[in-house]
Amino acid sequence: MSKGRCGTWPNMLNKAFAGHYGLGGIPPTSLKSLVNFLVVNQAAQGHFVVGLSGTLDPIRTEFVVHEVASVIEGILEDSTKRIADMDIITPSERSQLSILCPPVDNHPALLHSKIEEASASCPDRTAIQYGPSVTCTYGQLNRRANQVAQFLRSKGLDKNLRGIFDTQSCTADVIDVYAIKSAQLDSAPLYAAKVGLEADCLAYCIYTSGSTGLPKGVPVSHEAISAGIDSIIEAESVEPGWRLLQFSNFFFDVSVSDIFRMLSVGATLCMAPIEVMLSDLTRVINDIGVTQLFITPTATKLLRPDEVPDVEGIYLAGKLVPEDLAET
């Protein structure tokens, strides 16, 4: 092997252990803290000695050493090949990884799939409570959403077209969000789909605040947000009996979680005009029977626990939670 080629692969290996790549099933960021140093010496023509020092367990150490050997062999075969393009995982490591990370069950590919299931299984259950007197059942939600979806399709809107809709944080907006999904219209902030779309199709675009520059539209796929909603439902043990107050503005991604994690399990989304909630949040909570809140620490300061006896859970986000509020 020429000196020129000899000088290239050590640099590539150094990059691998400087955090550019992951080895041994370890992410790059973790690898840097677990491996103190790696030494690869050329013992003879075509023979190398690999030395490794760190706090890895024996199994992972063996995997890393084998992967380094595979990298060296790959570079010797083709010095122009990138480490990122090499298949360096051994059959034994692949088997071990399959045990540590078993396949997960597939979740609905489309964000609105579970709402359709809830509409079919419990059509008479209340999906949306707007103020103390206005309700919308799952059956009504599905029918009205389909009507809006058919109207959108009649206007020639399809999955290749993005649209913007105005929101007032009311029942009609939730119906529009659901309908847009059924009409396969790609919108900002939310998108649509119908049977036949793929999991990697765009679900919606959410825009950054622009605090560090111009606002940027971030595309989110059905598969990604559907998996996210499923994980939140599981982590929070969301149940059909929940009645969550929809406090977040429609232009924040938290509203997507509020809407779809409630409607996906047959729970009730509680709504009221934002000005009413800000003026007398306690009364709104009690009037519409809210049991769960997902709000900011600032808004929580408007409440006293003894004045909202039916509230079972409060989830805080958006800002740092003050110590005095946490104790309350």
Automatic annotation (TrEMBL):
Record GO terms (molecular function): phosphopantetheine binding
PANTHER family: FATTY ACID SYNTHASE (PTHR45527:SF1), NONRIBOSOMAL PEPTIDE SYNTHETASE (PTHR45527)
InterPro entries for this protein: AMP-dep_synth/lig_dom, ANL_N_sf
SUPFAM superfamilies associated with the record: Acetyl-CoA synthetase-like (SSF56801)
Organism, scientific name: Gnomoniopsis smithogilvyi
Name this polypeptide is given: AMP-dependent synthetase/ligase domain-containing protein
One GO cellular component term noted in the UniProt record for this chain: cytoplasm
Residues of the AMP-dependent synthetase/ligase domain: 193-304
